[in-house]
Specification:
single chain; alpha/beta; Rossmann fold; UDP-galactose 4-epimerase, domain 1; seven-stranded parallel beta sheet; two-stranded parallel sheet; 11 strands; globular; NAD(P)-bd_dom; NAD(P)H dehydrogenase (quinone) activity; oxidoreductase; NmrA-type_oxidoreductase
Length: 290
């Protein structure tokens, strides 16, 4: 048995390898795959197999996926390139006869206006046509995505956005990684599509309060219009494309695209998901130690 984890040098992939080891999977039966041999070296030091891969170079994938009883395809990070990259990985998995493929997708990927969803939806369609046994993990937002807001709030005492009263049912990456590990080693997950989220959907007022508690000072959320938000972001140095993406995402949140809190994640990992304040504090501690 070999379990392959792609994106192993990234946050979610690395945490999934850790979770597999914690569940007693022998290191020699895990293959950590990523782009950088240097960043894969710590896995090798722990006895984990490693493979240097590039989704844009299909010839690097066949050996990496050989003999895999299960493969975690962590979605790529390059927006606009992911469909072709994922297609290459799925085709290589099919050639290798991978026992089961687990893919990290987006919430309600095939039925949402979420700005990030189209590439995930297309990947899910490719998977459906691949003939492979598949499990889809539709991960909601990562709490760590807001860790950078802590420094902003420390300087200004406020968070600024156009999400209005929208809610986000986030969880920590470690929560999602534990779920991925459970699905990779567990039975009965073939064909499942899991909508994963934190147990609680919080507002941006809640986020401001959690950051304020962490900093030991008052932090408020200033809700602005999308147009004003775009102006603020470009004035801060973001290019128009990036600013437009951030504003579009806040619009999705305002309209409820990330608000659904389901019990599925906590059921898979056998514990409550990490609360917002704890997730932010742990992210800050990791950043300080890095």
């Amino acid at each position: 048995m070999t379990i392959v984890v792609t994106g192993a040098t990234g946050h979610l992939g690395r945490l999934t390898v850790d979770a597999l080891l914690e569940r007693g999977v022998p290191a020699a039966e895990i293959r950590a795959a990523g782009r950088s041999a240097e960043r894969l070296a710590p896995f090798a030091a722990r006895g984990v197999q490693t493979a240097v891969i590039d989704f844009e170079k299909p010839e690097t994938l066949d050996a990496a996926f050989a003999d895999a009883s299960a493969l975690l395809l962590v979605s790529g990070s390059e927006v606009g390139k992911r469909v072709e990259q994922h297609r290459n990985a799925i085709e290589a998995a099919a050639r290798a006869g991978v026992g089961r493929l687990v893919y990290t997708s987006a919430p309600r990927a095939t039925d949402t206006d979420l700005v990030l969803a189209p590439e995930h939806a297309e990947t899910e369609r490719i998977l459906a046509a691949s003939g492979l046994p598949v499990t889809i993990l539709r991960n909601n937002w990562y709490t760590e995505n807001y860790a950078g807001q802590v420094d902003t709030a420390a300087a200004s005492g406020e968070l600024v956005g156009s999400a209005g009263e929208g809610r986000v049912a986030s969880a920590s990456r470690k929560d999602y990684a534990e779920a991925a590990a459970e699905v990779l080693v567990g039975d009965g997950h073939e064909g499942a599509v899991y909508e994963l989220s934190g147990d609680v959907a919080w507002t941006f007022d809640d986020l401001a309060a959690a950051i304020g508690d962490l900093l030991g000072r008052e932090v408020s959320y200033r809700s602005v219009s999308p147009e004003e938000h775009a102006r603020i972001l470009t004035a801060a140095g973001l290019d128009e494309g990036t600013a437009g993406f951030v504003v579009a995402l806040d619009g999705n949140i305002r309209e409820g695209a990330l608000a659904e809190a389901t019990p599925t994640l906590s059921e898979l990992i056998g514990r409550p998901t990490t609360p917002l304040a704890q997730g932010l504090a742990e992210a800050r501690e990791r950043d300080a130690a890095a």
